[in-house]
Structure formats: C-alpha cells, structure tokens
Write the structure tokens for this entry.
Amino acid sequence: MGNEGNKKRKLGIMGGTFDPIHYGHLVAAEGARHHFGLDSVVFVPAARPPHKGNSSISHPSDRLNMTVLATGSNSNFEVSDIEIMRMGPSYTIDTVNQFRRSRPDATVHFITGADAVLEILTWHRVQELLEICHFIAATRPGYRLENLSGILRDLPSQCIDKISVMEVPALAISSTDIRERVGKGMPIKYLLPEEVESYIYSNELYI
Ligand code: NAP
C-alpha cells in the first residue's frame, strides 16, 4: 500500500468570456487535461471581465447556457456559474480561492488564452495568484512566444515557473471571428458544436 490516498487531485479551471464557446476552447481544455494530467476541468464563464469595463458582451446567462451545451458530452468537463453569481468584477484570485475552499484536496491549474496571460501583470493580486495556482496559457497558431517571455521577465522566477505554455492549433478558431461571421451572414458550422450554433440562431445573438 502506498500513500496514494494522500495524492492531491489536479483541478483545471478554464477561464474565459466564452462569447461564444467554440471548438478551440474545447480542444484546449481537453489537451490541457491530457498533457498536465488534470482529473477534471471546470469551465468558468466570466461575469464581467475586469479589464473590459462596459464593452458589449453577451448576457452572462447566454454565455453560461452555451458553455453547458458545448461541454455536456465530456464527463471530465463541468461548468460553474460562480463568477456569474458573484457580484462585482470577475477577479481570478477570488475564483481560485473559492475553488480551493470548496476542493481543499486539489491543486488548481488555471487555463486561459496566452493573449489574456500577456496582461497578467495588471491582474488583481497577481503574485499571490501565482503562489496559489499554476497557469496554462493556450496559444494560437503563429503566436510569438517572445511576447509572453518579455512580459514575464518582470516577475520573480518562482512565479514564472508556475506558467506553462501550450500550443493549440485549433485556436485558429476565435470567438471574435464567429461573432463577425454571424453578423455578416457567413457560416459558422464546424467552428463550434451544433447545439451552440442552434442556440446562437434561436436567440438571435451577434446580429
Ligand atoms: P479575452 O481578452 O476575451 O481573450 C484574450 C484572448 O485569449 C482571446 O484571443 C481569446 O480568444 C483567448 N481566450 C480567452 N479565454 C480562453 C480560453 N479559456 N482558452 C483559450 N483561449 C482563450 O480574455 P477573457 O476571456 O476576458 O479573460 C480570460 C480569463 O482571464 C477570464 O477568466 C478572466 O476573468 C481572466 N482575467 C482575470 C483578470 C483579473 O483577475 N484581474 C484580468 C483579465 C482576465 P477567444 O475570444 O476565441 O476566446
């Protein structure tokens, strides 16, 4: 008998606006789960991304519904509405701390886009955040890694070590492009799950 009973579980938290969620996000989450040996990945749609102020994003309930529809067929995926239910801006430090309280047996790995991680030095209580969780930055094809290393140079080395970069070719798909396509009447089929496509049309999003 070893001490496997004491082994910490690894929890992935997939943070994003998901306006809308698409196959790039799903491939990134599944890739991170496999590569970093995560036990499960919880998708957490951001209520009001702290850096976006009043820019127009879809209603949180629509983004939450689309995320639930997109992840339903993967038993390793869950969706949480904690940021949507919490009042005020969606600070990642609050989200990570909430998960650490509810799942004290798990280490937390926060997965998000490399472009979002580029701004990390401006995030709320960033050093504390990097002390309590690991970061997985998912890059799009053609992403210049030196952008990220240049920014991270200003962090203490023990913080830099907490950030991993993962290339995700499927992130050639982007939410911005999908919104623009819908607005122009162009097809979005095969860029995101059919259930999400139907939800967008039935609820007249992005037109
Ligand atoms: P964003 O500015 O909308 O997205 C930046 C880039 O990253 C976009 O290219 C986006 O592509 C991509 N991206 C976003 N989430 C992704 C994901 N989970 N997987 C792969 N690519 C992703 O960023 P955001 O969605 O608002 O913020 C990302 C996360 O960081 C959220 O959880 C947010 O709350 C958190 N955040 C926290 C703070 C803070 O605590 N102060 C500040 C900023 C961001 P798509 O448009 O295709 O998704």
Remarks:
- Strands lie at 9-16, 40-45, 77-79, 106-113, 134-139, 163-167.
- The chain is about 40% helix and 15% strand.
- The chain has one domain: 3-173.
